[in-house]
Amino acid sequence: MKWILFVTLFASSTVFAQQQAQQRNDNTVVATVGSKRITLGEFNKKYNEVASQVLVNPPDKKTFLEELVRFEVGVQEARKRGVEKDPVFQERVNQELYKVFLEKELGNKIENNTITDGEMRAWYAQNPQIRLSDILIEVKPGATAAQRAEARKRAEDILKEVRSSKRSFEELVRLYSDDITTKNLGGDVGWQSKTSLVPAYYNAVIGLKNGEISSNLVETAFGYHIVKMTGRRSYEEAPKREIRMAVFDVKRKAVFDAFFNQIKKNYQINVNSSLVD
């Protein structure tokens, strides 16, 4: 028993001695920049973090040490020159402050959000994936009111022809559409979802039946659209990962909205949204 006790005490003292030696090594100063001391422990921690993230050709330790020195020189020189008072710096600080605040307050709530198949089905029932063909009458960026009115008049005339013509929609696309990407595809824009289309566009066409052509023009920043519904996917056919992400975004927004609606009560806030119409 005494022998076992001796071995145990010897092993414990050896581990303790090793820990003390490691601590001394960690506290060894590998570089000094002004009043800043960079210890071996600090260096190893930062180097290991970088090396674990860089899969190909991580920096050698001497090069990385030089980078740490340069970083500290830059930080100290920036403070000497008053960069902390620069509006650009202050804006970046505010952005990081906001991000860290949200991560701290809402990170766990968002990460722990569970998404059920029932929630996915309910969301998809209101927001199905659809396939469309489109005639675009383009309005160039920066167009004047007169140019936009001219484009609209042209679009209205084409819409009348589309709805009364015996020609196929695909043929009329080739005749009139300004979208060079889909012009030779009969206007086919492929399978689209609420997350991939401009909201105004999706909301304007979602009520169309398969094979139906929009009775009104659909206006977007790109111009005026005449749209034909060509397909609608069932939930079983739809990409579940995309649906899951959409539901996740909805639930994340709900968490954000509830949080800010609560804390905004602590502030006097006046908003004149009419000025940004």
What does this structure look like?
- InterPro entries: PPIase_dom_sf, PPIase_PpiC, PrsA_foldase, Trigger_fact/SurA_dom_sf.
- It catalyses: [protein]-peptidylproline (omega=180) = [protein]-peptidylproline (omega=0).
- This is peptidylprolyl isomerase.
- This protein has helices spanning 2-26, 40-53, 61-80, 87-111, 117-126, 145-164, 169-176, 199-205, 240-263, and strands spanning 29-33, 36-39, 130-138, 188-192, 218-220, 223-232.
- It is an alpha+beta fold.
- It has a domain at 127-232: Chitinase A, domain 3.
- The strands form two sheets. The protein has a four-stranded antiparallel β-sheet, sandwiched between helices.
- A hairpin with a 2-residue loop joins strand 5 (218-220) and strand 6 (223-232).
- Helix 5 packs across helix 9.
- It is elongated and about 85 Å long.
- The termini are far apart.
- The model is unreliable at 13-17 (pLDDT under 50).
